[in-house]
Amino acid sequence: MEERLIDEVKKKKEFSGLPDSVVMRALEESGDDVKEARALLRKYFGVFLTNRVLKGKGGLLDVHISSKKRDYNKFYSEIFEGIRDVGSVVDLGCGANGFSYEYLPKGVDYMGVEAAGQLVDKMNGFFGNKDLSARAIHADLFDVDSVVGILKKAKKDRVVFMFQVVDALESVERNFSLKLIGEIMKNCEALVISVPLVSLGGGKKFAVKRKWLMDFLEENYKVEKDFEMFGERVLIIQK
Ligand SMILES: C[S@@+](CC[C@H](N)C(=O)[O-])C[C@H]1O[C@@H](n2cnc3c(N)ncnc32)[C@H](O)[C@@H]1O
User: Fold this and answer.
1) Distance from the CA of 176 to the center of ligand 1, in angstroms?
2) Is 160 touching ligand 1 by the criterion CB < 6 Å?
3) What is 72-238's CATH topology?
4) Nearest CA to ligand 1 atom 4
5) Cα 21 to Cα 27, 55, 148, distances in angstroms
6) I want to staple 194 with a disulfide (CB 3.0 to 4.6 A). Which of 25, 154, 175, 232 is the partner?
7) Which DSSP string corresponds to 157-225?
8) Is the pLDDT of residue 200 over 80?
9) What is the pLDDT of residues 21-77, one digit of tens each?
10) Which of 91, 114, 138, 184 to mutate to test the pocket of ligand 1 (most atoms within 8 A of CB)?
């Protein structure tokens, strides 16, 4: 029964590449109403799964809503300035970020974890063509065991990115991001979190609302760096 409903939701092309667990959560929330589940998914993933993203050819950094504002050269220089040893980067909810591989420190392993299967396929195509030490993995960040499994296998020193994903996670389950960060910090050497300073629709400064996140990070870890760039606030966290 459940599988049939999941398949039904996934008949719409934009949702066909999502993990079943993500679709199942939307169905649960909608009381097994397929239309309502699609509406929820559209609200949640809609801005990331636009036609330009799904049909775009080649690099998608200019098209994806979160990456298009960044100058990756400057962005990564600022981030990696204070992080000396990097064996791998694990990018959680990576969107189209895999296409920025060439701007990362030379020779690092890159693993992007993303729910949108279409983006995962495009990034893997790009990595394969260029023979890069990089891979995109199709997974749901709510599957904490799977995230921890990826981190345990990654090469040390492991730097984890969580760029603009906290809001998405929090909109599904309040305080889930704190639980996830707790597990990540047991299995990495540095964590880089970014949050948008303006809402995705533009406008109002959001920074003040993130006191709960800052308090949690400051109480439990060391905030090594805290800066603003290209409309986002970036925090580098170490143990
Ligand atoms: C605002 S975008 C940020 C993308 C990228 N991190 C960046 O900053 O360029 C959020 C991304 O998280 C992904 N995402 C949201 N929920 C997810 C989940 N439960 N599991 C895996 N990926 C998820 C979305 O598909 C989307 O690509």
Assistant:
1) 15
2) no
3) Rossmann fold (3.40.50)
4) 95
5) 10, 24, 17
6) 232
7) SEEEEEES-HHHHHHHSTTHHHHHHHHHHHT-SEEEEEEESB-TTS-SB-GGGGHHHHHHHHHHSEEEE
8) no
9) 999 999 999 999 999 999 999 888 876 666 666 666 656 776 666 677 889 999 999
10) 114
